[in-house]
Amino acid sequence: MPPLPAPAPPPPPPPRAQPEAARLRFGHRLRHWREARGLSQAEVGRLLGYHDSLISRVENARRWPPPGLPARADELLLAGGELASLWQSVHRERERLGARAATARPPLPAAPAPPDDATVEALAQLLAAYRAAAARLGGEELAAVLEHHAHTLLGRALPDPRDHPAAGSLAAQYAELAGWAHFEGGRHARALSWYATGLEWAHATGDRATAAALLARQSTLYWWHGDDATALALADAARSTAPPLPGPRAWAAVVQAHAHALAGRAAQVSRALEDARRLTGAALRSGEPTPWSARADLVLAVAHGTCQRDLAVRTGRAGHARAAADRLEAALRLLDPATRPRDHALVIARLAGAHALGGRADAAAGLLALLPPNPTGRIARERRRAEEWLRG
């Protein structure tokens, strides 16, 4: 029996697709400027509102840079407009490759049509209902449905929010609430991702109020993690981005105050909170809708109390702790535990912390006993901090 012929060698693997020239150069120059400023990928991601993994993929040309990144990176890294200039060639390259790919493959099914005006209006009304529900119950359980509606409006239907500005703006507002829902649930990387996505949509549609709100949300996330420098940079960006309306600027002033308090700057806290009070009053007098129109006194009292508590932590001064307790007790009197149970529990936990910092151990322990036995999210964290201060 003749020997069997030797099996043919396997065909060589197809060559790996190489990043095109413009995308590769953009990644190299982004890395150059980042390293020249002594920043890590994580630091650049935080300051620009993106996850550090996205910065890594852009630098290594494994991902197209998002449209909002080049100009903001130019400003942050003092790149003299180079990255924004490179973005033009990157954009042309992406369009050229997209056109080439479209001719090389069978036509895809038609993309979903953009939502009509009636759908946008219905989803806008739903968003108001979701905000009310989140205020009462917290946002953890709403994250999935908020994400779904954001995609319905824009994410899977239109690659460019400018094709349908009303849908794009509303999608950015859904992204803001979805990010906050993830923040409430302790999923902070997911929250940051939605904030960054919403910010791109808001910038693309010219919605400065929502862009400022998203920057304020990002500032709050970094305040929560104790990063006063990033929190302040984002708060300042929120204030400069906000339209010339008192409502959005009031929100930005509040997050500026929180960032200054974290750093122990009492004078700057007072100025920012006075700005917030003045701007909130102007918004209410003009009838302008704000995120807290119906509860301005409550929001400002909580902001004052929380800032004074953070100043007490940073400076060790009992006067700040007493001022925090006074403000948070006033906020508690404005809260109905039956209609806003989560906010009520959150203020109780912060008030307990203020009493603990002020040396009123019995008052702090009594308040901690009023909290739910197994709190979650922000309430759990505030409770842990109050217990640490009480032990200390």
Q: What low-confidence regions span 5 or more consecutive residues with pLDDT below 50?
A: 13-18
Mean pLDDT: 83
What would you report as the Rg, rounded to the nearest angstrom? 25 Å
Q: Would you report the number of β strands?
A: 0
Cα(first) to Cα(last) distance is 89 Å
- Strand-residue proportion: under 5%
Structural class: mainly alpha
Topology order in helix (H) and strand (E) letters: HHHHHHHHHHHHHHHHHH
- Shape summary: globular
- Largest sheet report: none
Number of helices: 18
- What level of helicity do the residues show? over 70%
Please describe what this structure looks like.
The model is unreliable at 13-18 (pLDDT under 50). With 392 residues, this protein is mostly helical. Helix 7 packs antiparallel against helix 8 (165-184). It contains 18 helices and no strands. The longest helix is centred in the first third of the chain and has 23 residues, at 82-104. It is globular, with a radius of gyration of 25 Å. The chain has helices spanning 21-36, 41-48, 52-59, 69-77, 82-104, 117-137, 143-155, 165-184, 188-205, 208-224, 228-241, 246-263, 266-286, 296-315, 318-333, 341-357, 361-368, 377-391. Helix content is 72%, strand content 0%.
